[in-house]
Protein 1
Amino acid sequence: MLHNPFIRTVVSVVFFFRILWSYVWFSLVTRPLTPKGERRAKAEALHEKNAAWLYHSFVTLKGVYIKIGQFLSTQMALLPTPYLVEMTKVQDRVPVASTEAIRQRVLEEYGKPVEEVFSKFEPTPLACASIGQVHRVTLKDGRDAVIKVKYPGIDKFFQTDLKVIKALLPIFVRIIELAYYRETSGIDHRKTIGEFVKYIGMELDYRNEIKNHDHMRELLADKREQGMVIIPELYHDHCQEAIICMEYIDAHKMMDWYGNGHVPAEKKDWIYRALLESSLYTI
């Protein structure tokens, strides 16, 4: 991960404008010189090439760019299909931080090495996200737990990245619309992206996440007692500014489980109902 804010800004601008220039060239040169019946295919090929490049750029920069990629993967009204396909990879293929970096983060937060904080630490992460990654641990009292560790150095460049993305992304989406020669969606891209940037800015504060987690456990207490939802218990005595520690629950991603083709219809209906009722309960 590039840690210098200035270098990250330069790299970000280069990544974005490399793609933007390809669309400008396509619009001004390639498209007019291409037979009408072949233009759509050439546009699709360009989208596929640039989408792959954008994915490479995001996983290189990591941090907030991973979160932006995850956001874009759900925005069918904003981007052509090749981008949605590539950005979907960001959901599961986030590069892993080194074990040494995570151990150093634990040392900084607890003031003690991993071995003195936990009875067992699994170096292979269970999951990797935009801001941190999750490792399974065993507490000294024998409880199975997981720790969500914020990536080292991410605080230094997070706000700078947000400003760059907020400025460049609406332009990027608009240029793609023009190059794609489709009807504009009518969406205020700057407002949509601005709201999302504001939201992910809050995610950097683990104290806010801890507060929301406890609030949801309290709010859905009845649903938890009914067995409709499971919300892990936070172990506050092991939570730090850059580390969240909570109960370990053996589970699978819903989409992986749901997509195996062997889920009974009645189980699907129960899941839909549980999700709907739990969501309505929080409004």
Note: The two ends are 38 Å apart (CA to CA).
Protein 2
Amino acid sequence: MEQGPLPENEKITSVDVEDWTPERRFSVVLETATLSEMELADYCRRTGLFV
């Protein structure tokens, strides 16, 4: 399941998940729920998140 790049208005420049809306948090959960460990690592690198 390949995720495309985030739209310009969704790009993360500095990750502060405390500022995320509940909808954004849930969206990330849904986007990553079925990813393998390698896909999740790639997703996190592309979006600036770390697990």
Note: The chain has a mean pLDDT of 80.
